[in-house]
Amino acid sequence: MQFSLEPRISWGDVLMTTGLVISGVIAFGQVSEGVTLNASAIEVIDGDIRQLAQDHRNRLQLERADRERMRLEMREDLRAISEKLDRIIESKLLESEGT
Q1: pLDDT tens, 13-59?
Q2: How far, in Å, CA of 70 to CA of 76, rounded?
């Protein structure tokens, strides 16, 4: 079996090649457009994620500050209760010693 090429180009060959080139350019353009849209969507999502992370950090800081404030208030309340108990105990001791 011999493989031979004829050195001539037909109009069908020209039309087919032109059609393939045009189809390739159109397909490449659509793929590029899709990639661009995806890239812009990813940028938007990335920005949203960064904003959510920052909001989360801010909320955590506020919660920590609130917890610390509550702890301080509880310490002050407990200190006041302790002082009152000490005074009550001292007065009871003084009463019992006086009688």
Answers
A1: 889 999 999 999 999 999 999 999 999 999 999 999 999 999 999 99
A2: 10
Backbone region of residue 39 per phi and psi (left: phi > 0; alpha: psi in -120 to 50; beta: other values): alpha
| Reported pTM | 0.54
Distance CA 88, CA 99 (A): 17
**How many helices (H) and strands (E) are present in the chain, helices listed first?**
1, 0
CA dist 15 and 89 (Å) reads 109
Dump pLDDT digits (tens) for 60-99. Answer: 999 999 999 999 999 999 999 999 999 999 998 888 887 6
Joined tokens for residue 31: 């793929």
Tracing tokens 């506020």 back to the chain, one arrives at 62
